[in-house]
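Course assignment 3, question 2. Fill in each field.
Student: A.L.
Task: Predict the tertiary structure for the chain below.
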Amino acid sequence: MIKKIFSLWVPLAAMWLVMGIEMPLINAVIARMNEAKANLAAFGVTLSLALIIESPIISMLTAGTALADNRENYRKLLRFMHIMALVLTSFHLILGLTPLYGFVLKYIIAVPEDIIPQSRESFIWMFPWSAAVGYRRLWQGVLIRLGKTKIIPFTMIARLAATCAVLLIGLFTPSCSGALAGGIALSFGVVAGAATSFFFLFPHLKDLPADRNSEALSWNRLFTFYYPLALTNFVTFIVRPVLTFGIARAAFPLESLAIWPVVTSFMFLFRSMALAYQEVAVSLLKNESDREPLGKFALFLGGGLSLIFLFAALSPFSAAWYHYAAGLSENLIPFTLFPTIIVATAPFFSGMTSWYRGLLVFRQKTSIVARAVFINSLTLLVLVLTIPMIADIQGGIIAALAFAISLAVETLYLKSRTGIRFSDGKA
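Answer field:
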């Protein structure tokens, strides 16, 4: 069983890792362009808002893996995706092209006013983001369902290649701001990833069973399964502006806004491989007896990734990464040390939450996943609001503490609702 878990996890981890490389690359290019500090901060805000709008379609990967068990059910999922793509893209454009954008950034998130124009321009160019990510994740989920996981990393390589090509053009275009280059690059990247996913899936669609031996996917069943997961992602991603809210009101706001997306991008390189485990659990769980090997693998996976990340954070490697790879100026690097150490726990807790979520999806108890994320977000909000009252510390440290503690609380809640121990899959 362990060999089977590993062989399924590796391609999915590679997919997430390639995706994780994308943000450090974008931040590194922005850091080497004009007005780096302001553009890093502006792009961080842009990405946070784009992720909130995108959040309802993130779970199409899980839905495709769990529900696309015949052609008719796949077509129902595809129609559902068409509706969401239209709604989310329309909302993105309305927000970006109207005064609402400036109002949200200035009065709700309270970011420094001078970075709003760069952020708006970048955000408008990211209008294909939600739809492209949604279709790509649906088609990747169907590929996982069909056991074609080895294909999936190639879809992300296509995305990364397109992103890098646009970044290279932006780097050598004097009139292009760093935030704008990042937004355009992400748009081209996600469209390339979606197109490549469909290209690889299309020949295999005939492998989906034509009959309806499995339960038909009614709209009611689809909605009941999907809406808690969509709500989960929405609440998860709305946390980003909450963190920005806290950073903007703490000590050294501009420096913290500049380094926070770079720190989280570095963390995501390790955390991403743990996040890939949810689809492994969804795919391999056939009955309750499968829990023990899957649970143990999650424990060692998350723990190992956190230890490696902590070692990197405590060694000269992290400073070298931030300076030479991410391109941060030397005066910003000291602001990264403590936030990096604090978020080193994230891969472990992400590995465990991925396992618990996969188990709950298998049990058709997705509402528990949504409640766990609400608890996470409430914890984070309380911490972001209260820590600055207790201590006058830099915004990056406040964001890291709130992020790490809230993730730990979510993990413990999920553990309590699944009824299994950290150490194994047994009740």
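Instructor remarks: The radius of gyration is 21 Å. Residues 20 and 269 are 5 Å apart (CA to CA).
Grade: pending
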